[in-house]
Amino acid sequence: MDMMHAVINAIVQGLTEFLPVSSSGHLVLASSAYKLATGKALMSGGSQEIFLDIMLHVGTLVAVIIYFKSDLKNLFLAFTRSLKDGTLKTNEEAKIPLYIAVATIATVAVVLPFKDYFEADMQRPAIVGIQIMITGILIYATEFLSTKIVNKTSKIGWVKSILIGIAQGIAVSPGVSRSGSTIAAGLAMGIDRVTCARFSFLMSIPAIIMGAVAGSIELIKSGQYTGFNWSAIIIGTIIAGIVGYYCIKYFIIFISNNKLNGFALYCLLIGLGMFVYFGYFN
User: Fold this and answer.
1) Residue 163: which of 191, 139, 144, 140 has the closest Cα?
2) Phi and psi for 191 in degrees, rounded to 5?
3) Would you list the domain boundaries of the chain?
4) Contact present, 263 and 15 (Cβ < 8 Å)
5) SS3 category, 191
6) Is-contact 64 248, C-beta < 8 A?
7) What is the dihedral of CA 93, 99, 104, 105, to 10 degrees?
8) Which of 170, 167, 202 minimizes the C-alpha distance to 184?
9) I need a labelling partner for 14 at 20 to 30 A (CA). Which of 67, 180, 221, 241 fits?
10) Contact 164/99 with Cβ under 8 angstroms?
11) What is the pLDDT along the chain (282 residues), one digit of tens a residue?
């Protein structure tokens, strides 16, 4: 893996991790396109490319933490204070860390049985294209349903947390957008757009941490980390974090006043292109 490959993937990760278009699917697309352009086999890359993807997610994780640092601090203080004064049951803001924990448990319950199957899809860009199209259909359907809900709410609750966590687990499949699935699930249940986006980004923190730790442990155990291009990996991680930070900033502004139908159309077109090209012409 060379520096250019890492930089391209870093920019793609930073732009797509928080947009409802599937970062994993776009990483597959970017890597596959780069390999074709440079005459490399689609199946090349191996453990080094897997580790690069892990570190790029760490970069966007840092972006989330930095952007929401005040929120994280306030949530922690609200949670601890409500425990002391016994108001946890009635304080919705204080319960958000618990909602995130419940959603994360639901995510893990979905991911573990299908982990190997999801990872295998990373090597099949045509299949990833189909799943990106599914993301587009999901977003369109959700936006249609949300227009039928008159009274939106900022309250998340236990059941909605579990369902959003399940949506995040399904999105481990490359091509199915994590942010798209979780935001769509929230919108379909009547949660307002800004609350959906905020909760989606916050609940990505434990999910990315667990994924990064699990993936790194597997590589260390296998001993496949020797000979990596560490300069490319480090620079890529930094770039992903910077791009991701500004993507969060402007996407939250966008979603507060706009529907996601444009992203849905994009997913349908790019997914169809991937399916046709990699399925029939390559």
Assistant:
1) 191
2) -80, 140
3) 3-281
4) no
5) strand
6) yes
7) 150
8) 167
9) 221
10) no
11) 789 999 999 999 999 988 999 888 888 888 888 888 887 876 666 778 888 888 999 999 999 999 999 999 999 999 999 999 988 888 888 999 999 999 999 999 998 887 777 766 666 788 889 999 999 999 999 988 888 887 788 889 999 999 999 999 988 888 889 899 999 999 999 998 889 999 999 999 999 898 888 878 877 776 666 678 889 999 999 999 999 999 999 999 998 888 899 999 999 999 999 999 887 766
- Report how far residue 228's alpha carbon sits from residue 214's, in angstroms, rounded to the nearest whole number: 19
Enumerate the β-bridge partners of residue 153.
191
User: CB atoms < 10 A from the CB of 86, how many?
Assistant: 8
Rounded Cα–Cα distance for residues 264 and 141 (Å) = 9
Paired residues of 40 in beta bridges: none
Task: Quote the tokens at residue 238.
Answer: 């930094």
Measured distance CA(30)–CA(172) in Å, rounded = 18
CA 27 – CA 98 distance, rounded (Å): 32
Widest Cα–Cα separation across the chain:
65
